[in-house]
């Protein structure tokens, strides 16, 4: 399939992408470099050269982000990003080639420019934007202000492609990878892996509405899309056969999966940050999403973030400033009551609540802050129904506490461990080695794309997620 727009990348676009690169990397947890970074660059170049972009090997840059969110996205200037978590879901190099080719397709087909012409500019907000942005709806809603006040973010034209644009990029990506010699069935395989991860996450969270992996959310996933990719692969003449599974597994072996302890980890309802030496617990029925600068919390009773800002030693002024961060220009029209002082598990604390009118009605905005040292404080910013105040989050704000040195030392990363099946190994015996206290078999099957009645063969390579070292 031929791109519908000029695949060339202008010097202006390239410069803009390069200028914002470090901000993107910082927003998504840093860059995974070394041999893994070089490997992804090689695979990306191998498919990009078939995009029609002049000097494609140098026009496109591919970066692995140290993020626990399954995501990949493209910036019009030729920068393409993929998270280590999305790579961890993959089974082989062909699946990686499809994702990178798909993102190249968005750039080569000029999808961002086509969207701009329809005034559909978008913002990469990281995890928190997705969690908080829909609380009250609309660009002027308090949820959007909460996310903007709590974090820095990069203005990128990357999200919300139309269905036709997604289908076109699927077709382009499948075409690029096939010309590069890859098995085009990797496209449907990757999309199916995302579907499995989404369905399993819904079961783990105990909710009917599944938490869709970020790449599937920004690149809408459906059974029709998986079936379409599979049909295109079947219809392709002279289809490639390369999957390079062993090479790919060798690259992801030892890679961090899920949260990086340097950014804090989520264990059930607990958030634990060994470097900051703190922990808290969310109420039953609430879920968390972690990003580099904050934790997003959501449930039927409200939504919140846990984050930090500059601290000068005065906790009352910290609370007021944090609330003004959230309110932005609305701060002039909102009365912020004087904070109340208290102590939580030995920590000096202060909090306040105010009523805010939004386009969807009145809500309560609360800030609850904790002093951890003379120059360090953290806070929750919470949105609840008018009149509820902190109520739904009462147990959470009371759970913040320091970690002991031993507790911090006990926090270890989860890493991918590629193992060779030995005679006598079963799904159940290998799943028991997974570093989780629930859904071990289901996680093992999903991670390896195996059916529930699968039997393992000696010599077969499979992925486990085990505890690593810090």
TrEMBL record:
It comes from the Bacteria. This is Putative Zn-dependent protease. Keywords: Hydrolase, Metal-binding, Metalloprotease, Protease, Zinc. SMART domains: LysM. Residues 417-464 form the LysM domain. It holds the Pfam family LysM. Residues 1-20 are annotated as: Disordered. It comes from Sphingomicrobium lutaoense. GO terms for molecular function: metal ion binding; metalloendopeptidase activity. GO terms for cellular component: membrane. PANTHER family: METALLOENDOPEPTIDASE OMA1, METALLOENDOPEPTIDASE OMA1, MITOCHONDRIAL. Its cofactor is Zn(2+). GO terms for biological process: proteolysis involved in protein catabolic process.
């Amino acid at each position: 399939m031929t791109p519908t727009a000029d695949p060339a990348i202008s010097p202006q676009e390239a410069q803009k992408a390069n200028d914002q690169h470090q901000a993107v990397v910082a927003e998504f947890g840093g860059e995974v470099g070394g041999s893994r970074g070089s490997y992804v660059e090689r695979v990306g170049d191998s498919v990009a050269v078939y995009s029609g972009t002049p000097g494609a090997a140098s026009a496109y840059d591919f970066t692995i982000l140290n993020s626990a969110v399954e995501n990949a996205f493209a910036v019009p200037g030729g920068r393409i990003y993929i998270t280590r978590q999305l790579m961890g879901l993959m089974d082989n190099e062909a699946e990686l080639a499809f994702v990178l080719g798909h993102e190249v397709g968005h750039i080569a087909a000029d999808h961002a420019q086509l969207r701009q012409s329809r005034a559909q500019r978008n913002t990469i907000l990281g995890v928190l934007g997705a969690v908080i942005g829909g609380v009250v709806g609309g660009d002027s809603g308090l949820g959007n202000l909460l996310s903007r006040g709590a974090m820095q973010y990069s203005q990128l034209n990357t999200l919300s492609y139309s269905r036709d644009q997604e289908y076109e990029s699927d077709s382009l990506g499948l075409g690029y990878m096939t010309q590069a010699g890859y098995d085009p069935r990797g496209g449907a395989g990757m999309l199916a892996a995302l579907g499995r991860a989404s369905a399993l996450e819904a079961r783990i969270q105990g909710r009917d509405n599944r938490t869709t992996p970020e790449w599937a959310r920004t690149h809408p996933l459906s059974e029709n899309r998986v079936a379409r990719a599979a049909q295109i692969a079947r219809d392709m003449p002279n289809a490639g056969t390369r999957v390079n599974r062993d090479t790919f597994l060798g690259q992801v072996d030892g890679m961090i999966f899920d949260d990086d302890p340097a950014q804090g980890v989520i264990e059930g309802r607990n958030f634990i940050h060994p470097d900051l030496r703190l922990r808290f617990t969310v109420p039953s029925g609430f879920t968390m999403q972690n990003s580099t600068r904050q934790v997003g919390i959501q449930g039927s009773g409200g939504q919140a973030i846990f984050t930090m800002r500059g601290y000068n030693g005065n906790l009352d002024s910290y609370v007021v400033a944090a609330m003004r961060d959230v309110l932005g220009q609305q701060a002039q029209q909102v009365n912020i009551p004087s904070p109340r002082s208290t102590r939580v598990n030995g920590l000096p604390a202060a909090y306040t609540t105010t009523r805010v009118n939004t386009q969807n009605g009145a809500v309560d905005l609360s800030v609850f802050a904790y002093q951890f040292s003379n120059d360090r404080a953290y806070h929750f910013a919470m949105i609840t129904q008018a009149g509820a105040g902190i109520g739904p989050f009462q147990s959470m704000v009371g759970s913040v506490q320091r970690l002991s040195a031993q507790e911090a030392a006990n926090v270890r990363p989860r890493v991918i461990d590629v193992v060779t099946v030995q005679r006598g190994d079963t799904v159940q015996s290998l799943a028991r080695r997974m570093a989780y206290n629930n859904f071990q078999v289901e996680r093992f099957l999903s991670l390896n794309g195996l059916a529930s009645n699968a039997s393992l063969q000696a010599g077969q390579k499979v992925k486990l997620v085990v505890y690593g070292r810090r």
